[in-house]
Amino acid sequence: MVKIPDGTALQLRFAQAVHGAVRRHLHVTEFSKPGDKIRLVVAEDVRVNGQVAICKGALGQATVIKADPPTENVPPSGDRGAFAAGLLANMLIPQTGVVSIQLDWVEDMTGHQIPLRPVLEVKPDGKAKPKPKSFVMSVESENGGRTARPSKLGADLKGLPRLKAWAPSGTRILAFVDGDAPIDSYELEQAQALLPIRNTTSLLMIYRMKGHGTEQPSLSCDGKELGAIAEKRYTTLELQSGKHICNVQGKLPTDLTTEAGEEYFLELQRHRLTNTWELKPMTTAEGEDSIFGLEEMAANQ
């Protein structure tokens, strides 16, 4: 018997949009409703003991638990100007209600449903963890795409323009396996034969977003000079399986261990504290979103 450990992290994507009710011109239009099932897909393979236990593209499900109506701006009654402005804002500015969802399950390689929860809870006393709970979804644009996560502010997302209460299709969300999930060893071994034949090499994408356009830091991997990557560009390297070292301007080495058939992403960015260039490892889902729309360049270009 093979076991997917409790708390194993999974990168998922919404396969459909999740949208709260919208008030526009004093009319409320409902979209996602309580009880609606949300289709999810796995964005990265999950491996246990070298075997794919949950494969990229596997199906999952979440459920809409609650869909609150949009809040209204309540202007102070004593100030006629503010009162009129508040009423006008309610009429002209669309407002979106928040949505509470629950992560239900994802399919493993043998077709069994693995229960999920939205947060990684560690209890040192060894007591059983509570069942997955619903959470208010907040969505933020980051790393080239959108990420949904439980809101720490409950239903109050007002005044935070970066946070949205709706998620378009393709939005990333991090989930965790809820409880140890056993898989029959024989069934898992049989399922491995259904996977595509893996390449014998791995791919490494190094990319750079917008910013600090006048600077052209040089890169190298395994002693091979790659030149400089300009803004909004990326380069792809084919690597043999094993350990590799990439550097920025001959400093700050980034160690990377690759496996055959896998993809890896490094973002060239400025460190917030030291203000020096670094190569930051990114997840496959983050990297895929980030390089979308960037221009590919050859090494040494």
Write a compact overview of the structure shown.
By secondary structure, the protein is mainly β. It has 3 helices and 25 strands. It has helices spanning 80-92, 185-192, 284-291; strands at 2-4, 9-14, 22-24, 27-29, 37-42, 46-48, 51-54, 59-67, 95-96, 99-107, 113-117, 135-142, 145-150, 163-164, 172-177, 181-183, 201-208, 218-221, 224-228, 233-240, 242-248, 251-258, 263-270, 277-282, 295-297.
Account of the 3D structure:
It is built from three helices and 25 strands. It is mainly beta and 301 residues long. The protein folds into two domains: 2-192, Lipocalin (Beta Barrel); 201-297, Immunoglobulin-like, CATH 2.60.40. Residues 153-161 have low confidence and may be disordered.
Low-confidence stretches: 153-161
Count of helical segments? 3
Name of the level-1 CATH class of the largest domain? Mainly Beta
Order of helices and strands: EEEEEEEEHEEEEEEEEHEEEEEEEEHE
Helix content: under 10%
Radius of gyration: 23 Å
- Globally, the shape reads flat
Q: Averaged pLDDT, please?
A: 83
Number of domains: 2
Q: Which structural category do the helix and sheet elements fall into? A: mainly beta
Main beta-sheet strand count, sense and barrel state: 9 strands, mixed
Q: Which architecture of the largest domain would the CATH scheme give at its second level?
A: Beta Barrel
What is the distance, rounded to the nearest whole angstrom, between the alpha carbons of the first and last residues?
Answer: 50 Å
Number of strands: 25
Oligomer: single chain
CATH topology of the largest domain: Lipocalin
Beta content comes to 35-45%
